[in-house]
Amino acid sequence: MSPEIMSNIFVFVLATFVGMQVIQRVSPLLHTPLMSLTNAISAISVVGSLVISGKGETLLSTVLGTVAVCASMINIVGGYLITYRMVKMFKKRSPKKS
Amino acid sequence: MNGSMIDSIYLASAVCFILSLIWLNTVKTSSRGVIVGVVGMLLAVVGTLLQPSIEHYLWLAIAIVIGSIIGVPLAMMPMTAVPQRTALSHAFGALAVTLVGSAEYYLRYASLAVFDMSTLCLEVFLGSLTFTASLMAAGKLQEILPSRPVTYKGQNIVNLGMFGVALVIGVFIVLNPAGSLAIKILFPAMIVLCMVFGVALILPIGGADMPTVISLLNSYAGLSASMMGFVLNNKLLIIAGALDGSSGLILSIIMCKAMNRSFMNVLFGAFGQVQASNAALAQRAYRSAGAEEAAELLRTASKVMIVPGYGMAVAQAQHKVRELFDMLSGQGIDVRFAIHPVAGRMPGHMNVLLAEAEIPYDKLVEMDNANSDLPQVDISLIIGANDVTNPAARYDKTSPIYGMPILDVDKSRMVMVIKRSMNPGFAGIDNELYYMDKTLMLFGDAKAFLTELVKELSSNR
């Protein structure tokens, strides 16, 4: 196995652990915004889509890549925007200190 | 721009994503979390566009604009539609991953090593099944498709068979990716089979299981993005995908625990078929009351616990609940909300709805805390929740929900249930609670009944 693959596996395993630790601390109150946010983050596939589409190697790859960019952008814009709307709702009437 | 510069941008982006999730831990820091998440994504996109291999910007620009235009209305959906919107966005994510994986395969099949080919296959495998499964879930949640479980004899064998065949095809492709059989037939066949499998997987899923299934699909979508990172040798993709994957996994574990079920049981158990014994049970005696009597009783209480469920979402009653909350709080009554982890159709669904109605979030109580408070509560008011309050889960070993942690509303001094009729709820299980002496059934649409209740409370005091 090449060192590149090994270091990628390292990154994957460690990132999963970080994810587990961080997510476990999220209050159940915010589980819906959490899912919307991670959904927007997983639209990171836009990176791969942009490369495939932007290289323009074959017609097939360009078309598939362009549709993928479109789908990822929907999730980025939609995901962050709705998460922002949600967390604002939680804040709007924050608990009174009395 | 050179490679290490781009890598530094990607590193900064990954740090942003992790910070984003850390700040989402509490309501106070949550909007900062979203903003840093946006920054992370911007960095990722800019870093990618700076790559020298990208030459054609026109199509990219068009795709980005179209995607953004579609994304905005999807973000403006009402909070009651958030579960189906989330399922839909899982589908978009999975679609992108599948398309990129396919494009990558047809560009590079001649030069892909075994490891890369395996991750590519896994990426496309997960992506295509998540795509159709998420579309199915969204269709069921939107009730375009029948939301009751669809089952037939031998279903599990058929499903596992499809899964097995797709897996075998995957292995064949990995072993000989450049063969014309793989290119022309096997690869497309694997995608189609996985798509059919995705549909078949969701057919037997009922509404009560949606929180678990949505979380699981979330996990798959993340994992497939991570696999794309392996194929493209891009660590940012691996990290962001792994974060999403672990988040979905943790949420599905929480949901499973809250229903006392295993993954296997959720996916292959076809929960929620109507029990045959219901007819006999439905004949039993119960007490019911109108809005006037209910208002009278609520006025004498000092502690009220409201238990919302999916019925509140369906009736869009959250704003009426807020009026009731204001009315009762104004009369010095302590009103709080007991939230079961699987109430609604996705994790945290009830919290978001109540937040939308501007109910202060410190009034929302998690299950364990609610259960230690419930014995001191004068009135539990159940709005559109059913199975999560069924005491049979504690003692009736024959009940399908036996062992599921529930909200012990039967321990409060009095119980009121707003419900359309005595028909059993979504899971088709009769609820013992409704026949208890301390229980008062309030029949009607949640929104309509609450409107009347608020009117009664405000008039004759």
Q: Structurally, how many domains make up the residues of chain B?
A: 3
Largest sheet of chain A: none
Helix/strand class of chain B? alpha/beta
Number of helices of chain B: 18
Q: What is the string of SSEs of chain A from the N terminus onward?
A: HHHH
Described by its quaternary structure, the protein is: heterodimer
Give an overview of the whole structure.
The complex is a heterodimer of chains A (98) and B (461). Chain A has a domain at 27-92. In chain A, helix 2 runs antiparallel to helix 4 and helix 3 (46-55) packs antiparallel against helix 4 (59-92). Chain A has helices at residues 3-24, 31-42, 46-55, 59-92. Chain A has four helices and no strands. The model of chain A has no long low-confidence stretch (mean pLDDT 90). Chain A is mainly α and 98 residues long. With 461 residues, chain B is an alpha/beta fold. Chain B has three domains: 1-76; 79-268, no CATH class; 282-458, TPP-binding domain (Rossmann fold). Chain B is 61% helix and 7% strand. Chain B has 18 helices and six strands. The longest helix of chain B is centred in the first third of the chain and has 28 residues, at 114-141. Chain B is globular and about 75 Å long. The N and C termini of chain B lie far apart (74 Å).
